[in-house]
Structure of Glycerophosphodiester phosphodiesterase:
Amino acid sequence: MKKYYLTAAAAIFLTGCGAEDQSDVNENQNNNMSEEEPENNEADNVQEENDEEAEVNDDSSEEEESQAAVIAHRGASGHAPEQTMPALEKAIEMNADWLELDIQMTSDGELVAFHDDEIDRTTDGEGEIGDHTLDELKELDAGSWFNEEYPDQADESFEGVEILTLEEIFEEFGDSENYYIETKSTYLNEDMEEPMVELIEEYGFDESGNIIIQSFHQDSLEEIKELNDSIPLVQLLWWEVDEETGEMEEWLDITPAPDDMTEEDFAEIAEYADGMGLHLEYYDGTEVIDESFVQTARDEGFEVHVYTINEEEDMDRLLDWGVTGLFTDYPDRMQNVLEERE
């Protein structure tokens, strides 16, 4: 399984990350040993080695805490057609920690990776995705739109790429990758949770820690928790400004505005979710969250993942605030930021 950094509070989310390789620890210890130390003082040597090992481990913990998960939003969707195989492969090449996928259901009950309710934007088809069978969707071109929309990133190999099923993605990458799944539009995709959880369990990802499930829809997350309470869940939130009152409100009334949230509000979410997926700005550029809110959410025991951050300046600022993960269309940009912070 891919290894990646995590905070102490992120243990329920991010598995596979550990202390430094023992050979590296030993090498660091040897490099720190004094050449003038008497060879016959074995007791002192042992004590000093233990002290140095503790120091190495402390340094490792500090390094881990300074990092956050790189969540590839619909794959590396800034570089290739979203949620297609090229976007996922590019995200993996860029060492993303998580492959973020929006999951919807076809008319014949298949789970597919697709964001919009309508297929018009990213394919050469028309209508709602849930009105089509998997075979019908497989005939569509899900890549040429990207070349037309982003000529600077165009690639002939994108033409004709297919919509993928969740099972195809699991089969292709197995437990070598981590999957951050969103249940989309549950008012259209009724009863998608049970077959999704069954597929996750079939591949053993609920036990190996390769899965996070997120949703804007609280009832969807609660149902998943009932089906399998070992899967980490993230409550997505979107605050918007009411045009009549001018007040900020969460679009599905999950919480009050960030500034008005109380311990009770956090506790209600904590009954079913382990993390919160937040947005930085409203459409007009008004910032919705600040460092104080991020720290409050962390203090309340939540993982804090912010979507969708594509500018390195914003990434750096949010990392300073203490977020534990960022969704981005450009995993390579976030890797640059993390490297500069080392």
The domain at 69-341 is CATH 3.20.20.190 (TIM Barrel). The longest strand covers residues 98-105. The chain has a mean pLDDT of 86. The two ends are 23 Å apart (CA to CA).
